[in-house]
Each structure stands twice: as structure tokens, then as C-alpha cells.
Amino acid sequence: TFSETNWLGRGQRLDFSLSTGTTSRDTSIYFEEPAFLGRDVALGVGAFYRTTDNLGALYDTRRVGTEFSLGFPVSEFGRLDVRYGLSKDSVLNVDAVNTSPLIVADTGKGPITSAFGLTYAVDTRRSLVNPNFGYLFRVNADLAGLGGDRRYFRTTALGSVEQRLANQDITLRAELEAGALFMQRGNSRVTERFFLNDEMRGFAFNGLGPRDVDAVNRDALGGNYFAVARLEADFPLGLPEEYGLSGGVFMDVGSVWGLNDKVGAGGNIVDDSRRWRASAGVSLFWDTPIGPLRFNFSRALRKESYDKPQNFDLIISTRF
Predict the structure, then answer these.
(1) pLDDT tens by residue, 273-316
(2) What is the DSSP letter of 167?
(3) Residue 201 contacts by C-beta under 8 Å, 6 or more apart in sequence?
(4) Parallel, antiparallel, or unpaired: how do β-strands 291-302 and 312-316 relate?
(5) Torsions phi, psi of 32, nearest 5?
(6) Which of 122, 106, 111, 119 is nearest to 57 (CA)?
(7) Which of 50, 188, 254, 312 has the fewest CB atoms inside 10 Å of its own CB, making it the most exposed?
(8) In Å, how far are 103, 217, 242, 264 from 214, measured between CA atoms?
């Protein structure tokens, strides 16, 4: 990843990213002019190419697109971003015999999606007025259908509250996040639905949510709706500061549900009802030269028989 926030000494932002892993490959470039036309308006232009090689799944995905955005402050802590995106999503390499017909139906090079969207956010977490308390509220809304092949309205919302104690050594955090996808024409595609992969700990990639249990390969189908609550606390471990180690505990409760088409393998109806999952665990934070690492050790407290729990994961973590 290359990131420059003062490109050519003009205060412009340039990001270029190339990443690859066991489940995905991602290439993207983004440019932002923070003072468009000499005003406090940020103009952004980006393009991306993303592919996934889903572990344990008998299909792959590919997404290519571009996006243009304008962002500006609307209050002391509030900001509004307006964007337009054009993308093409494809579902490839599908095993039509062993995969659910709900995924087989999405096979092919995929439709073109033309979507207008906006993001409104209020963030006081870095406020100098009260550095020990802050909150974040963010809502996203995207309308696809002004051109392109897809017709839907998609929205997500996030609310987060943070309280710092003991000279800011201890941080308590509570978050609530939810989303919904409303189709205006046709059924939702597997590339458009929610999966909770980055929103809920304690479960593997595509590890929870509706599945076609009658298909040979019980691939996760995702859902048109999701909701998740996260509680966590970060605290020092009493070790010398130069070690860069601290700890944490967390608990997540959430679910993903809802399908437009529920007829799965053998003509059986897929259970897409809202079934709550829960997980809890401990974290170890380590500030290293390559970046802040977070080790999560978790256990699924409530799950369905077909879910795929994951007791450990390692991620690059950014904490505010």
C-alpha cells in the first residue's frame, strides 16, 4: 500500500493498494483533492478490481468499478459525502451440480450497477472539548437504478459510544450496526447481500447466516438484512510500556437474514429467519514495527448447527 496525504506538496491524497490473500485479491487506486475549486470540498476519484476465491465454497466472485465523490462539512463534527459508482459484479466458476440453485442463478459475467449514494457522519471521538468521551453516528444510503441493470435501495447505519477511564488507559466501547437491502426489481444477488464477515467475531469467513442445507456444498447465502451489537473494553496489562502490549475483552451479538428467493436444492425452502448468534472472547494488542496487531481468542456462545465458528484470528487493528 502506498499512501500520500500531501501529494506533490499540494495537500492532495493519493492511495494505491495491491493485496492478495487466501480468499481474495484487491487492487485499488484513489485520488482526492481536499480543496476543490478553492473551497472546503473534497473531490475524490477511485477505481478498483476485486476477486474472491472463497474457501470451502464452489464459486468465485469478481468486481470491477469506479467511483466519484464530493465531501464537505455540514457542522462542527458532521460531514456529508455524495458519490456515484459504476460497477460490474460477476459470479464465476460455479459447480452447478453441488451448489445451491440460489447461487447458480447468479452465474455469469454479471450485470452493471449504476448507483448514487450518500454518507452522513457525526464523529466527536477526537474532540478536544471532552477527550474522555466521544461518539460516532454514520448512515449510508445507496440507490441503484438510474442507468445500469440493477434496481435496489441499500442502507446501513452505525452508532458507537466510547468512554475513557483511568487517565485514558481503559476504553469502554459499545456499538450497534444494522443494514437493509430493498430490491426494486428482481432478486438480490449473492454479491449484493450482507455476510457479517467484518462485523462479528467468533465465526469464520462466510461462517454464519442462511444456508441451503439440502445442497451438497452448504455455501453461505447471505441475507438482505443484518444487525449486530458489539461490546468491548481495552486495558493495560501492567507490562512495561516499551513492550507495546495491552489487552481487551469483547462480546458480539448479531444475525443476518432475509432472502427474496427461498427455493433451494430439491425444491426445498431455505430457512432465512432471523436467528441470533453470540460470541465472546479476549484480545491481545501488540504495537509492532509493521503496524498494530490484534489477536482475538473467541468462542461462539450461540450458533446454529451449520454455522462455522472460528476461535482465533489475527488482524491489523487501528484503534482511536
Answers:
(1) 999 999 999 999 999 887 789 999 999 999 999 999 999 988 77
(2) T
(3) 250, 252, 279, 281, 296, 298, 313
(4) antiparallel
(5) -135, 130
(6) 106
(7) 312
(8) 13, 8, 54, 7
Rounded to 5 degrees, what are φ and ψ at 268? -80, 150
What are the grid coordinates assigned to 118, written together?
450518500
Q: Which three cell numbers stand for residue 178?
A: 444494522
For the chain, the first-to-last Cα distance in angstroms comes to 21
Closest C-alpha among 183, 119, 104 to residue 145: 183
Residue 255 CA to residue 307 CA, distance in Å, equals 12
Catalogue the long-range contacts made by 65-68 (C-beta closer than 8 Å, 24 or more residues apart): 65/113, 68/43, 68/44
Task: State the chain's maximal CA–CA distance in angstroms.
Answer: 62
Q: 223-282, pLDDT tens digit by residue?
A: 999 999 999 999 999 999 899 999 999 999 999 999 999 999 999 999 999 999 999 999
The CA-CA-CA angle for residues 134, 156, 248, to 5°, reads 45
Residue 270 corresponds to which cell in the numbers above?
431455505
The backbone torsions φ and ψ at residue 33, rounded to the nearest 5 degrees and listed phi first, read: -100, 110
Residues 6 or more apart in contact with residue 2 via CB below 8 angstroms = 14, 15, 16, 17
CA distance 122 to 44: 20
pLDDT by residue (tens digit) across 190-223?
999 999 988 999 999 889 999 999 999 898 999 9
Let me know: does 189 contact 91? Beta carbons within 8 Å: yes
